Amino acid sequence: MNLNGLFLIVLLLFILTLSCGEQSPPASPIPPRGVPVERVGDLAIYQLFCDRFEGLPLETKRYLYHLCRACLAGRDVAYDQLAPRGLEVRRLLERLVMTADGSNPDFDQKLLDYAKGFWAFSGNYDPETWRKFTPAFTPAELAARIAGLRSEGDGWPSDEGLKAIEPYIFDADFLPVLVNKAPPDGGDPVQASAVNFYDLGLTVADIEAYPSQFTLNNRFAQAGGQVVEEVYRVGAPDVTPGRMAACLEEVVTELETAITFAPDGSRPALVELVGYLRTGAPSAFVRHQELWVKDTSSPVDYIIGFIEVYHDPLARHGTFEGMVLIEDSDQTGLMRSLAEDASWFEARMPWDDAYKKRNFTLPTARTFEVLCGTGDAGPRCPVGINLPNLQRLRGTIGTKNFLLTNVMETGAEERARLLFGEFLPTRWERERALALYDERRRAMVALHEVTGHGSGKVSPKLRGDPGEHLREFASAIEEARADLVALWFIGDAHLVELGLVPPELTREGAYTAYLAWSLIALRDVPVGDQFEEDHTRAGQMITRFIIDRGGAELEELDGKHYLRLVDVEVAHAAVGELLAELQRIRATGDRKAARRLVETYGLSFDPALRDEVVARVGPLNLPKRRAFIMPELELVTNRMGGVRDVRILYPGDFKGQMLRFAALK
Q: What per-residue confidence (pLDDT) applies to 16?
């Protein structure tokens, strides 16, 4: 062999060494799709799959990797917001789970079950009822476990420290409700709510009197007998660091790295987002939202920041969420056709012409797969999204509307089949409600997000955003309005023309299913006689209004109650009547009328009927709640440290994922 040949062999071996690099550990077996990987009582945990990741260019994969890392870096903020001492309790639980040695398997299992619920809901409050859930182990068992561990390392709470946090964990009557927007006997919503946007002891009057300069990313504390505003922000050369500054610094660091891999059209919005997280300035958030809505060319999108106000009794503070999305281009076309026909739908809304849009900035409507969701967007994920929430932006620059296909596809039809079998009394009603179930559900969500939230305009006489006037009733009114738009148009021949639904889909099937779900929803409130969560209040308000107008009735057959469609045309007319009124309320900021509707139709229920529903659902052994194990991304490097790929993993292990996420700190 000559020298040239020897040189080529050495060079080839060197190249192979660089390209092979350090091998990552082999992936676990792929968990099953569409069925729970784990069950913890009423909670079902699924592995979320994101098939669109494979085949993306390396630059895009690295962009996604750092966006996901930014979301994970910020998840502690949501724990800080969603329960007093919530972050402290979560960290204690994680340390206990990691140190479990098998010496007390009964305690270990109870601990793990409680921790999984805590992880799934970002705290110890049920996401539907907003009521505290408590562990099966006792304060004495917890104290004994910690006492046995103190000799093995520092950092465990003292007896006094443990005693101080016991009420937050074990006492179901201490701060029992996360968000109580309508406490009985005219109580104070801020004092009646456990959510950590306000220090304990503050009142609505205290908040109203404070001249706040911030929105969404702030909370109110007490210091020296005075109200103090705390801002979630990193800080800047001329800005003092705020609450959770170190955590948000990690978010910013990952976002700044993501910017280096981002498409050109996405960089300006990300730069403004970084500026907003540093300074907390509302103007920076508005600039980010304006640029973000206009950025529609990339197959990747994200939602990072303080967004939804559902958890605030005054509907002002946003819960942190992080979500990373990859476009599901196969189904985006149908969403776009719906958005492009926005003027057709607006012209046929049943409300006064004064509240109809005339000049349109067409909404952006796309379908996505969720790659990562944290905080208010995970491990529980929504199925649809409509943003921004600020009315002045919606009216001038339009909206983004997302349908999240991999979340929607997880076991919905099977749950409906079992529940409709129990709560619809005749075979033809069950067949009608289940016919084209997935197609109808997809259309209803699309109509809700794109046509519902994106429709209507406010009165020019209204000063400020409608939410500022409707306050604690704003979210329930808006969710009901969007649901009503979907019910108003479902079954319309125009949806068939757009290709959104097949011609066999009927309004009767949609209304039958909606009414049945309204009755089934009583299972989600096992105690008390009042709905707290805004989406649930919205659904109950619609259903009871339809009953009030004679379109449906609660009927008893053989000792069981059924909520049945009586006359679809009467029900449709009731939908139009209520929709017109809700649009008027929103457009004019009529808080008195909003209160009257919510308290009349959407607030309270008969506990005896609830107990019957719970008893009937029990034998079906169906979970009430869903949470997801997210895909995980892993950099694949060569021996020189260069990134040659980003690998997607599906771990199928909720505990393992939560502990890995906690270790990122």
A: 35
Contacts of 11 by beta carbon, 8 Å cutoff, 6+ apart: none
CA distances (Å), origin 123, targets 88, 162, 169, 660, 664 = 10, 18, 10, 18, 19
Task: Check residue 465 and give its pLDDT.
Answer: 87
Residue 165 lies in a domain: yes
Q: What does DSSP assign to residue 628?
A: E
Show the 3-state SS of 291-327. HHHHCCCCCEEEEEEEEECCCCCCCCECEEEEEEEEE
Length of the chain equals: 665
How do residues 374-386 score in pLDDT, each as one tens digit?
A: 999 999 999 999 9
Could you tell me how far CA 270 lies from the centroid of its own chain?
Answer: 22
> What is the distance between the alpha carbons of residues 96 and 598, in angstroms, rounded to a whole number?
43
Q: Is residue 103 part of a domain?
A: yes
In a domain, 564, yes or no: no
Contact in structure between 41 and 113 (CB atoms under 8 Å): yes
* Cα gap 184→530, rounded to integer Å: 10
Tokens 């420290």 sit at which residue? 161
Q: Is the pLDDT of residue 537 over 80?
A: yes
- Going by pLDDT thresholds of 50, 70 and 90, the confidence category of residue 184 is confident
Asked whether the beta carbons of 127 and 378 are under 8 A apart, the reply is no
- Tell me how far apart the alpha carbons of residues 556 and 97 are, in angstroms, rounded to a whole number: 48
The two tokens of residue 299 are 């197959």
Long-range contacts of range 346-350, CB-CB < 8 Å, 24 or more positions apart? 346/455, 346/456, 348/489, 349/455, 349/456, 349/485, 349/488, 349/579, 349/583, 350/488, 350/576, 350/577, 350/579, 350/580
Q: Can you tell me which residue has the tokens 């308290």? A: 599
Angle between helices 474-489 and 437-446 (to 10 degrees): 130
DSSP tag of 353? G
- Encode pLDDT of 129-157 as tens digits: 899 999 999 999 999 999 999 876 678 99
Looking at the structure of the chain, the number of domains it has is: 1
CB-CB contact of 472 with 189 (8 Å):
yes
Distance, in Å, from the CA atom of 436 to the CA atom of 439, rounded to the nearest integer, reads: 5
Which among 27, 451, 71 is positioned nearest to 258, based on CA atoms? Answer: 71
In a domain, 597, yes or no: no
Assign 404 to helix, strand or coil. strand
Note the pLDDT of residue 27.
54
Beta bridge partners of 555: 562
Query: What's residue 398's pLDDT?
Result: 85
Q: Is the peptide bond before 388 cis (omega within 30 degrees of 0)?
A: yes
For the chain, the average pLDDT equals: 92
Structural domain span for residue 165: 84-124+135-171
